[in-house]
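fyi for ur records
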Amino acid sequence: MGCNKLKALILVAFLTLAPALTRAADKSVGEQVPSEDSVIKDFHSLGLIDGRVDIFRCASPVRDLGTPTTLPSDGDVLLDEAKARIQRLYDLGIRTIICLEDPSRPDGDDATSKSKTKQLKSRIHLESVAAGDAGLNLVFHPMNNAGPDSLENMSDAQVKTWLDATTDDVLKYSRTGGVAFHCSAGHDRTGMVAAYIRIKYEHWPVDQAISEMRRYGHNWPKYSHNGGVSSWQEDHLRAIAKMLEQAAIQPGN
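which gave:
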């Protein structure tokens, strides 16, 4: 068989298998490390951060409860379960929840988008009521993964501003009790905030922080402009890591 014919056969085989390989990669994405708590999904300690050991990441504690069709009230089964989940966080030492979901997210133009937004707002309301009942602070640093004014199309500087504000609050509130920060599944936005803490406060190499981000469930093929090589969240982190390095070597630093 000639060399050119062999190359052509290899190319055809690759193009045939590529969709299956992509689907297989997508299936491998997800939390690869079991939650450290039996009740709260994707619950993980970040270990020793800035002299403290009370910083945690997790999924939304009420994400898997379902979506109330009306605003919850006392005696509502979902609200009772939400209160139990938030009480669980309290019992674990958490005193502040930092939510990365967006309670003011626009409804969108199509029925699917409107339904997702309604579910999101109902879930956030459920968490807010339960947090107030348990005496926990609920602080919002909203961000969306994709769409207008999101991580998908914001500049590196804009994303850094959001990350700085969010992590500043994580550290600030951890001085008076445990802090748990979360998005929806606890994988992408949560993973990005955790990675930034690793880079900024623990001085991890950016590749190490991204590796942990993927291991804890970041879906990089889904949020990618380069065919699944990297996500835009990861691209932001790489650029921001360079910004931090350049700032560190400036005269006077």
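The helical segments are 3-28, 77-91, 111-134, 156-173, 189-201, 206-215, 232-248. thats all i got for now
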